[in-house]
Design a protein that fits this description.
about 140 residues; mainly alpha; 4 helices
Length: about 140
């Protein structure tokens, strides 16, 4: 039973290897001998066979890299990103609303009247939903 790996995935894995090597070379530490040998051998197997592993227990049959190989490529890539000086992402922040009389909580009088049932607020009464009446 032969494996079929999509050539686009193989090309994507090759470019990921090259990016990881470039990032690691720019870092202060650079590539170690083992990392350079690893990247070279994986690149060679990808170009020759379209996949860098043969054992189906090590990853998906349609994937060009095994799980561990993908992990090592990501680790090598992160090695170069550490000195990149990128700011950590903070996410979305709520904007502060200006204080106007309409949105001040202390100025709003609290009403003692009961709230309307939820069904009337949402319009469910017009669609056939009738809330139970308390007798």
């Amino acid at each position: 039973m032969s494996r079929r790996v999509d050539p686009a995935l193989t090309k994507r894995a090759l470019s990921a290897l090259k990016r990881a090597a470039d990032k690691a070379k720019l870092s202060e530490e650079g590539l170690t001998e083992w990392e350079a040998e690893f990247l070279g051998s994986v690149e060679e197997r990808l170009t020759k066979f379209g996949s860098a592993f043969a054992d189906p227990d090590k990853g998906q049959l349609s994937a060009p890299l095994s799980l561990r190989q993908g992990l090592k490529v990501r680790q090598i890539s992160k090695k170069g990103e550490a000195e990149g000086g990128k700011k950590p992402r903070t996410g979305f922040k709520a904007k502060a609303k200006p204080q106007t009389p309409a949105n001040r909580k202390s100025d709003k009088p609290k009403s003692d009247k009961p709230r309307k049932p939820l069904a009337r607020k949402t319009g469910l009464t017009s669609k056939g939903f009738r809330p139970k009446r308390a007798d």
